[in-house]
UniProtKB/TrEMBL annotation:
Domain of life: Eukaryota
Protein name, as recorded: Glucuronosyltransferase PGSIP8
Signal peptide limits: 1-27
Chain's gene name: LOC110788315
Coiled coil stretches, renumbered: none
Length: 473
């Protein structure tokens, strides 16, 4: 007894010493000890093979971290295909997520859907194989949570919202895991059950074809779990397009809890150019700023800003040499030379507005992204301005016009989306003549420079024109 008591006291002393000498380690031990294994889970999926894998990886981490900030009482699970990079897996695990590695589910409908983004969406069926949980809320990465939605775990065996009047949306749905249902779904894939879109939504819509006739879900006050299938109120899947019409939320059925962003993949909220084109993109980036941050993109953004500033300085200092390279006399094929020079000048201006858009990190904050874009466009325009001796104001007019468009779209006091659209249209209508004037000014300047150069001696050691030559002109 004395030995046992002494051992207990010794363990307590050792623990106290560790906590005093190594507070970080003790905090980690305490955190590990406090980890809970919940009976419910929020889950999402991740797979590779599309041009936008990194963007969806970032979106997944932001969504899951936002759920942590909302203090959800559930595990956070990522169903990741085995080809997801290991450093991504480790980062998600460090976020507190549970990563389940799976083999990709073969999609027999991929021949009917040319969009590579949907070829592996059948991995979503693995949610039914998470049999360690009583209920699972399955999510797409393009959801923006406004508040805790743990009450959804009270729903039945399958529950989803109808964004489309006749087709429920699979960006968020509740399910009861079942190995039997999972195996039956795989069997239905093998026999190619009818599928309207070749992706998970068409398959699940066919599998739960009677959901439209089911009752609406309302959380029981005693926190018990329901049985059966239910329709979720629209407030759990608020289509972002509803917001753009009124520029505010007005969804009366159910709590306004989750925003979803269906539609064109290039206008997802995590892309910097989505705001202010789509105002809700800023809300997503604010959520990212408060959760994940921008540490991965900022070094690249800083390097680009330095590069653009360097281009502006160098092109200005090297202006005489640039113009000598461009305006040179040729005795043969003068017409072709002039046409090629005009094309090169116009192409360089177009490239100045395209290249920055491509090379800026796609998931950077919109304010940083647009600032980099305008700086990059101006710096690349300076190459054309100094090389071809073009008027600065005419070349940078599109840059000024883009900045004005951003101000018009970002104005926060529009009555509704229709008024906002009319103002944008009116601005574009008024600005288009200025763009045309700037184009004609650039073209005229090029023509004058080429005609003047034809009568000047070449800068490459040519003899001057014979006496009296200029008198003819």
């Amino acid at each position: 007894m004395l030995l046992s008591r002494a051992a207990e006291i010794g363990v307590v002393v050792v623990v106290m010493v560790v906590m005093i000498l190594f507070p970080t380690a003790s905090a980690a031990v305490e955190e590990k000890a406090q980890q809970q294994y919940y009976k419910n889970a929020y889950a999402t999926m991740m797979y590779m093979g599309t041009p936008r894998d990194y963007e969806f990886y970032i979106a997944t981490r932001v969504m899951m971290r936002s759920l942590i900030r909302l203090h959800v009482q559930a595990d956070l699970v990522v169903i990741a295909s085995i080809d997801v990079p290991l450093h991504w897996v480790r980062s998600m695990e460090e976020d507190g997520l549970k990563v389940v590695r799976v083999e990709n589910v073969y999609n027999p409908y991929k021949a009917n859907n040319s969009n590579d983004r949907f070829k592996l969406t059948m991995n979503k069926l693995y949610a039914w194989n998470l049999v360690n949980y009583e209920r699972v809320i399955m999510l797409d990465a393009d959801n923006l949570f406004l508040q805790n939605t743990d009450e959804l775990f009270q729903c039945g065996q399958f529950c989803a919202s109808f964004i489309n009047p006749c087709i429920f949306h699979t960006g968020l749905f509740v399910l009861q895991p079942s190995e039997k249902v999972f195996k039956d779904m795989l069997h239905q894939l093998d026999i190619k059950r009818p599928n309207s879109d070749g992706a998970d939504q068409g398959f699940l819509g066919s599998y739960f074809s009677n959901l439209l006739d089911m009752p609406m879900f309302h959380p029981p006050p005693n926190a018990t779990k329901l049985d059966g299938h239910y329709r979720l109120p629209l407030g759990y899947q608020m289509d972002a397009s509803y917001y753009y019409l009124k520029l505010r939320w007005n969804v009366p059925c159910g709590p306004n809890s989750v925003i979803t962003f269906p539609g064109a993949v290039w206008m997802k909220p995590w892309y910097w150019w989505s705001w202010p084109v789509l105002p809700l993109g800023f809300s997503w980036h604010e959520q990212r700023r408060n959760t994940l941050g921008y540490g991965a993109e900022m070094p690249m953004a800083i390097l680009e800003a330095i590069l653009y500033l360097g281009i502006i300085v160098i092109t200005r200092l090297a202006r005489p040499n640039f113009s000598k390279l461009c305006y040179r006399r040729f005795d043969k094929s003068v017409t072709a030379y002039h046409a090629g020079l005009k094309f090169l000048a116009m192409a360089s201006i177009v490239a100045a507005y395209v290249v920055p858009f491509i090379i800026i990190p796609h998931t950077i904050h919109p304010i940083v992204g647009w600032s980099l874009y305008l700086l990059g466009s101006f710096s690349l325009c300076s190459i054309a301005i100094n090389a071809f001796l073009l008027p600065m104001l005419a070349v940078v007019t599109p840059c000024i016009g883009i900045f004005g468009t951003l101000l018009v779209m970002a104005y926060p006091w529009y009555k509704d989306g229709v008024v906002r659209a009319l103002f944008v249209f009116a601005y574009a209508f008024c600005a288009s003549p200025l763009l045309w004037v700037s184009f004609t000014k650039v073209h005229a300047t090029l023509q004058v420079s080429l005609e003047r150069e034809a009568f000047l001696p070449s800068r490459l050691n040519e003899s001057p024109s014979p006496p009296g030559f200029n008198k003819l002109y």
